[in-house]
Amino acid sequence: MLFPETDGSIPEFTYTDGADFEQQIERIIADAKDRSLFSRDLVGAIWDWRSACHLSPVRANILRPLEKLCRGRVLELGSGCGIITRYLGELGGDVVALEASAHRASITRQRTADLNNVTVVCDRIEDFNAEKKFDVVTMIGVLQYARLFSHCGDRAELDLLANAARQLNDDGVLVIAIQNKLGLKYFSGFPEPNVDVPYYGVEGQYGPETIIRFGLDELKGILGSVGLSAQEVYFPLPDYHMPVSLLTSKGLDPKGQFAARPLLTGTVGRDRARPDWIVPAFSLEQAWASIHENGLAEDLANSFLIIAGKSERAVAALREAQDLAWHYSVERHPAFATAKRFYLDGGEVRTARDRVTQEAAPALPVSHSIDDGPYLKGNLWWLGLVKVLNTPGWSAMDVCNWARPWIDAICREADLGPAVSLSLDKSVPGALFDWTPLNCMEVAPGELAFFDKEWKLESDLTLSYVILRGLFGSLASVSSCAQPAEGTPLEILELLRESLRMQSIGITDDHVEKYIAQESSVQHWINGGVEGRIGAPWVSYVKSAKLVVRIDGRHMRALLEDAKAHDANQQAVIQTQAAEIAAMRTTLEQYQSRALAEAGSRWRRAFRALFGRSA
Question: What domain of life does the UniProt record list for this protein's source (predicted)?
Fold first, then answer.
């Protein structure tokens, strides 16, 4: 690891995620036998969202669409604890990782110790200058800290970007990932990262010594002001921290061939940065549909991945590409990690799915296919449930009516006949494992088709398992819902049971226990590649999971008025009881006074009787 020469006049770099937290990350990496991107040692040590950002392979998805660009000479500005550095190093390019924190730089070096093509330098961005220029310079989650941790003045972001631009060769690109201060989730009440204050960026509360984020036009403008006017923008979903999908501008075009809504809405519930206490002000899934239809999705995206160069040649390959979107499934055994690309070919949308690693699949009672199916046009069936649950006054019957066509489609595929006349213990093919509403498209009125059928169990499944798996996953994927009709259960299992009961399908406790046991085993095979077992936290989640219900202002006001009335009533009761207690106390004191007086009189009479009147 390289350190710069310094005369001590520059203040020490103080950014940290917390000393205890970083020491824990350091210990985990030091103890890991495997420090690769997909290390099971590291993934197994994740304990929360913050640790996932440093240890999960999902973090590297942000650069996967730029894999070819990143195989050259790359400068990473702000390497943190080395998760992105590890990915870049494994691509095989010449990587220089710059980190101003000595402790974090040492963790980066530890994470990449076996990669000879990675050089770690402990230095500030604004002070660093390399003799040889770079093909790619990255700033992943760095620019927002410019005013806090650089010594460049009030417009530190301009100086940092200018210095980054100076490191590029003529056709090189600067790659920036950053949150959008006008991201949709921030309008819904999500607190802005680093300050934990809702509407902080929406209201423009930034100052000369705070974090700083930008809207899309602002970001393009400041990049242009430092000579990086050739730009392409991608949109990570749900956020750049842990993206599972990325869309291009072509993919977001509401007039184009590609339907972006399933990705925009389907990733809302996978936002790990959402605090437990947050109830969004509106349905993010429903809002994305309206925003996309009106061509506003780029401006209201939660994050940006912007690729900027000095000349059009720098981004020409990206501009000419026909890529629309990517979807990544990497939180699995490495042999099963996949990347799905959506692209235009002759004016038609095509899909291509590839394995992310070359690791051989273990022998398991489940098989995995990456065969490319056709791109299905239509309405994602799950979005019908989103609409149902976001209609005020919805009920279990509405969920029942939505679920019935999907259940009938499953039964037809398994040659079982109408679901109402069947035993839920009937066997169905293991190939139906992935036939969920989340993988179901209505391609014509009343005609359902299934896609992304990756997984097949070697043994048969029960009908109850397929139904429970599909409905529980669909309900749990809805991030929030409107107020339901009175008496509607909000516990997902109870709502599911009630909805099926209305179709004369009875789900018993035994069905639920068998579903939990089998799903737990299958997921452990897929994610760990080892002997299946039931995971206690997941079991607890399934049994206790509830829908998140939004409360509108009028209902909230009514609740507050009811609470005030109840409080006033309680105060009146307390005052009445206090008066009664005071009266009882007065009566008791009077009784005690009379009792003492009578006792004294008896003692005097007894004394006189014993000793005589003269005593």
Answer: Bacteria
